[in-house]
Amino acid sequence: MRLPSFDARKKTDDPHTREQRQSLFKIWIRHNQGMTYRSFRKTVHGTIGMEFVIAVPWCGMWLAIEPDGQTHS
Questions:
Q1: Would you list the domain boundaries of the chain?
Q2: DSSP 3-state assignment of 63?
Q3: pTM to 2 decimal places
Q4: Cα–Cα–Cα angle for 27, 71, 39, nearest 5°?
């Protein structure tokens, strides 16, 4: 299931910003959990109540990644 595009200004199939993709890659590099980068990106979820923020399960916790790439646990 593909996440809906959050940014109406950006008309692509990828709902993530470039900064979010860079943060996801840095997280995956730290500990890939035995997954390929592509399969790790498929674990990303949208959020409710946090506009444009994505969430990803990583090492037993959830990380939220803002559109500017800042990551919070």
A1: 18-72
A2: strand
A3: 0.77
A4: 35
CB 14 within 8 A of CB 4: no
Q: Quick one: how many helices (H) and strands (E) in the chain?
A: 2, 4
Q: Give the Å distances, CA to CA, from 18 to 14, 55, 64, 67.
A: 10, 15, 15, 8
Q: Are 62 and 73 in contact (CB under 8 A)?
A: yes
Contact 61/47 with Cβ under 8 angstroms? no
What gap in Å lies between CA 31 and CA 7, rounded to an integer? 29
Segment (H or E) for 56: strand 54-58
Read off the pLDDT of residues 7-32 as tens digits, 9 standing for 90 and up. 544 445 567 899 999 999 999 999 99
| Pairing outcome for strands 61-65 and 54-58 | antiparallel
In 11-51 the beta strands, taken as DSSP E runs, fall at: 45-46
